[in-house]
Each structure stands twice: as structure tokens, then as C-alpha cells.
Amino acid sequence: MGSSSLQVIVLFLRHFSLPVLIASLIATPVAWYVMNEWLQNFNERASLHWWIFVVSALLAIMVATITIALQSYKAANSNPVDAIRWE
């Protein structure tokens, strides 16, 4: 309705990236605690580094961003008549 494809993609990215970021912020301390407790049971201790959690959060955000951008682009550039025809 007058928006460019880029505006639609940015709108969807802003709307759907926030839950992924919040989920990463909640999951990081929980994952650290669970992994720390689990690793205490082994004789050979492996240390948990902070960058492992940062990389995993960045990968989750990157996968979500790519998925949202591709689906938004597809939706923004589709013909509405084709969607109505199949319903």
C-alpha cells in the first residue's frame, strides 16, 4: 500500500528480531548455569568461555535475520492477485 520493498523488509526485521534478541538474553545465563553444572560431573574439566555464548547468539540472530529478510522480500514482491486466485 505504497511502501517500498525495503521498507517492508525493515519493518518485519524490526518486529521479529526483538524476540530473538530477548530469547538470547534469557537463554544465555540459563545455558551457562546448566552447562556449568553438567561439566562439574567430569574428571577433566572444560572451561566455558564468554565468546561461545556471544557467537551462538549472533548466529541465532543472523539466521533469523536472513530468514525474515528472504520471506519479507518474497512477500513484498509477490503479486496480490496470485494470492487471491488460490484462496
In words, what does this structure look like?
1% of the residues are buried. The chain is mainly alpha-helical and 87 residues long. The mean pLDDT is 84. Helix 1 runs antiparallel to helix 2. The two termini are 20 Å apart. It has a domain at 1-48 and 68-77. The chain is built from three helices and no strands. The radius of gyration is 20 Å and the shape is elongated. It has helices at 5-39, 50-76, 80-85.
Can you give keywords for this protein?
mainly alpha; 87 residues; 0% strand; single chain; 3 helices
What is the chain-wise order of helices and strands? Answer: HHH
Number of helical segments? 3
Strand content: under 5%
Shape: elongated
Sheet of most strands = none
Considering DSSP H and I runs of 4 or more, what fraction of the residues is helical? over 70%
Radius of gyration: 20 Å
**Alpha-beta classification:** mainly alpha
* First-residue to last-residue Cα separation: 20 Å
Q: Find the count of extended strands (DSSP E, 2+ residues).
A: 0
- Model regions low in confidence, pLDDT < 50 over at least 5 residues: none
Report the average pLDDT across residues: 84
